[in-house]
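From the shared-data thread, chain only:
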Amino acid sequence: MKINTLVVDDNPNWRNTLSKLVALNPVLHLVAACESALEAYGNMAEEDIDLIICDIEMPELSGLGLARSLKNGPLFVFVTSHRHYALDCYEVSPVDFLLKPIEVERFMKSIEKVRVRLSNAPEVLQIPPYFFVREGHSYVQIAYHDVLYMKAQEHYLQIVTKEATYTSLLSLAKIEEQLKGEVFLRVHRSFLVHRSAIAVIHKNDLVLVNGESIPLGDQYRSKISRVHLNPHLLSRN
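Structure, as tokens:
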């Protein structure tokens, strides 16, 4: 099992050092070396990340702030020059806390803890229940259960949630590939709908809980039946 890893440190010399340490361990796969927490968000929007090796003191958003923002997210190993951060780290339950400068042997022991933690974790915990979309210069975390539907536009994806509407450069096909189980249904070549958002099923369209009507493609109608939607949702119209 390869462990998809991000290195996050605003110091370029330490980014380089940590990247070299990652390269020494055959179980780690370095996805990216990021200079900020915001850059890390961007990489998490594109890849499933298992581990973040992260500095604590960084501008804009600290390593602790990054960890607090990720519910049920990747595992963390913190690296810092300041011993007094050790107590603060416990609130986000990192796998380990490493003091700079870092010895290779100490780093390898830390990664072994990560490997054991991941191998003992139920598979479902390794599937993030959220994804990120870019909004200006930041990335917004969206929980899958908050999404009503997603609509493919010509050059972007429209994501409609219970509270707001977002746009993303992710493709509908990529989002669908990331989803596990049958919580979301492809109901049209341009639409992916959350099961719980469906109020009524007509022959040619769906009515959602927010009152919106979504087209139902002929080739997807049988899929609706196979996922065992409640019979009382079916309409004769």
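The chain has two domains: 3-126, 146-233.
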